């Protein structure tokens, strides 16, 4: 099982979940309401308790991966890259 190390701070009904980004060296932080935090902690799907959450924040809660770490693992595709440069599209 992959272990994720988060810092959890409580400010009343607002919970801040953060983790040090290994690329940028700063903390990436996501804010949840207490009831959302309890849903997350109990294993609910992020889209069920936070349907409007950004894709970056959702991925952070699911995998513990910050946006910068994600971009290093999966670099954005070059929009000018032509796939035909790499595969033969002609049929034999």
Q: Approximately how much helix is present in the residues?
A: 25-40%
The count of helical stretches stands at: 4
Structural class computed from helices and strand pairing = alpha+beta
Order of helices and strands: EEEHHHH
* Cα gyration radius (Å): 18 Å
Distance between the termini: 46 Å
Task: State the strand order across the main sheet.
Answer: 1-2-3
Give the tally of β-strands: 3
Strand residue percentage = 15-25%
What is the molecular shape? elongated
Low-confidence stretches: none
**Average pLDDT reading:** 86
Largest sheet: 3 strands, antiparallel
Written description of the protein model:
This protein has a domain at 1-45. The chain is elongated, with a radius of gyration of 18 Å. It has helices at 34-41, 46-49, 55-63, 67-73, and strands at residues 7-11, 14-20, 27-33. The protein contains four helices and three strands; from the N terminus they run E-E-E-H-H-H-H. Helices cover 30% and strands 21% of the residues. The protein is α+β, with helices and mostly antiparallel strands and 92 residues long. It has a three-stranded antiparallel sheet with strand order 1-2-3. The model has no long low-confidence stretch (mean pLDDT 86). It starts with 6 loop residues before the first strand and ends in a 19-residue tail after the last helix.
Topology readout:
Layout: E1 7-11, E2 14-20, E3 27-33, H1 34-41, H2 46-49, H3 55-63, H4 67-73
Antiparallel strand pairs: 1-2, 2-3
């Amino acid at each position: 099982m992959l272990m994720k190390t988060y810092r959890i701070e409580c400010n009343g009904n607002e919970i801040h979940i953060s983790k040090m980004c290994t690329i940028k060296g700063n903390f990436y932080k996501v804010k949840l309401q207490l009831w959302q935090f309890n849903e997350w902690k109990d294993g609910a799907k992020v889209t069920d308790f936070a349907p409007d959450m950004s894709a970056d924040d959702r991925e952070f809660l699911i995998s513990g991966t910050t946006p910068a770490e994600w971009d290093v693992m999966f670099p954005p595709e070059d929009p000018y890259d032509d796939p035909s440069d790499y595969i033969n599209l002609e049929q034999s």
